[in-house]
Amino acid sequence: MTASTASPSAPQASPAARPVAARTAGTRRRVLAFGVAGVLLAVGVVLSAGSGQLPIGPAEVVGSLLRGLGMPNAWAPDDALIEQTLWQIRFPRVVMSLLVGALLAVAGAVMQAIFANPLAEPGVVGVSSGAAVGAATAITLGLSAFGGFTIALCAFAGGLAATFVVYATARANGRTESVTLILTGIAVNAFTGAALAVLMFAGDTASREQIVFWQLGSMNGSRWPEVALVAVVGAVAATATIALARRFDLLALGDRTAAHLGVRVERLRIVSIVLVALLTGVAVAFVGIIAFVGLVVPHIARMLLGPSNRTLLPAALLGGAVVLVYADLLARTVIPSADLPIGILTSLIGGPFFYWLIRRGRRRAGGWA
Predict the structure, then answer these.
(1) DSSP code, position 43
(2) CB within 8 Å of 198: residues ≥ 6 apart
(3) Domain ranges of the chain
(4) pTM for the complete prediction?
(5) Which end of the chain is more exposed for a tag (fewer CB within 10 A), N or C?
(6) In terms of DSSP H, where are the helices of the chain?
(7) For 341-351, what is each residue's pLDDT tens digit?
(8) Domain 95-362: which CATH class?
(9) Which portions of the chain are predicted below pLDDT 70?
(10) CA 255, CA 32: separation in Å to the nearest integer?
């Protein structure tokens, strides 16, 4: 007669406890990611505000910020030139860069959600260039019906038109075809490039310089009134977008399933398209085309935190701010005594990432339908 004895072993988690442990680990990962991003953003703001032809120490930057917020301190600079440089030149530029990065990243995340395509991004599918054509039209024709907001409104209209063209063309038989989406984006970018060339030919020297600025993208010359407009419009659009996060998660289950769960799919897509155009239009209205931020940042956030839009959208917002603050800092310091257009820098980084994404997608899924 044989008897079997069970060897001692470590206690195993019960099946019911595993989801709880997974949620706890996910919460810790989110807290860590948002904490690290917040610290990186704070450091980037201080470094960017202190860098330039007039170097300003971190303590003076922080002291000036605190004094501006009504908190007197011993670190604040006494030199009027330093204060003027910070508050009239550096701080508006830094705030504009973090706002533009945040809005473009959120717009990219929304496009990827509504088109169910990891390659969707305002620059790739022509939304940014459509906004640029709208703004360039206002510049060349000297439109001023809405005062200083005219260029921003025309940029929004151009971005909205480009987005609807892409959506209407790529949508067929109840689904969005990825190949058609990318090809339509190529066509839109080609057309808008030609339109920008025509507007440059038709405009005067000042108009040409502004249109070239649009094509390259730059934070140089940002001022507080422009920053305030981008902040107000962007905050409204980003808040509305994040409020739709749960519906985007349901949309990922498929149009039919989402409709059964109460999502009005086409209405959601149309509202999202308007929000994307608003986010992109106001983001590029004063700084020009900045490519690939909306592609790179959502993918990094998705790899770190998972696909849930309720986490992804706020993470993209914060991550976009971090990326563009450091990109602007690099653009101002990589070449001594020169201000490299930030659109060139983001394209140099985003282009290889776009190529890697295509290769990765083909290896994993054999190509997108």
Answers:
(1) H
(2) none
(3) 34-88, 95-362
(4) 0.86
(5) N
(6) 17-50, 58-68, 80-85, 91-115, 127-141, 150-170, 178-202, 205-216, 224-243, 245-251, 255-260, 265-284, 293-305, 309-333, 342-365
(7) 888 888 888 77
(8) mainly alpha
(9) 1-23, 148, 174-178, 361-369
(10) 34
